[in-house]
TrEMBL record:
<dbReference type="Pfam" id="PF00581">
    <property type="entry name" value="Rhodanese"/>
</dbReference>
<dbReference type="InterPro" id="IPR036873">
    <property type="entry name" value="Rhodanese-like_dom_sf"/>
</dbReference>
<dbReference type="InterPro" id="IPR001763">
    <property type="entry name" value="Rhodanese-like_dom"/>
</dbReference>
<dbReference type="InterPro" id="IPR050229">
    <property type="entry name" value="GlpE_sulfurtransferase"/>
</dbReference>
<feature type="domain" description="Rhodanese">
    <location>
        <begin position="18"/>
        <end position="109"/>
    </location>
</feature>
<protein>
    <submittedName>
        <fullName>Rhodanese-related sulfurtransferase</fullName>
    </submittedName>
</protein>
Length: 111
């Protein structure tokens, strides 16, 4: 099962494993990252567009806590399901995506 975590609750979800640096996996396209992005705060930000994930799995550690992020949450949910099918088990989908994040953090532009 893949956790659904609101942006405001992400730090608490990441804190469940204090032994490893968690990853926020942003699966949006490069133009989207230029439009709105988040600053890493207690996590490593990794940006891999959704269509590149299968060829770049080696960049992700199977033991890491990984929260997937996209614009509204649909692409990131699909990526989280794909990762789960490929042996990753500490996964979350950022519910509402960067759009929800922007309502939680006014420094993140809404698009």
């Amino acid at each position: 099962m893949i956790d659904q975590v609101r942006p405001a609750d992400l730090a608490a979800w990441f804190a469940q494993d204090a032994d490893a640096t968690p990853v926020l996996l942003d699966v949006r396209e490069p133009w989207e990252l230029q439009t709105a992005s988040v600053a890493p705060a207690g996590f490593t930000l990794v940006a891999i567009p959704m269509n590149e994930i299968p060829g770049r799995l080696a960049e992700l550690g199977e033991g890491q806590r990984i929260a997937c992020l996209c614009h509204h949450g649909a692409r990131s949910q699909r990526v989280a399901a794909f990762l789960n099918q490929n042996g990753f088990d500490q996964l979350a989908n950022v519910a509402g995506g960067i759009d929800a994040w922007s309502s939680h953090d006014p420094s993140v532009p809404r698009y």
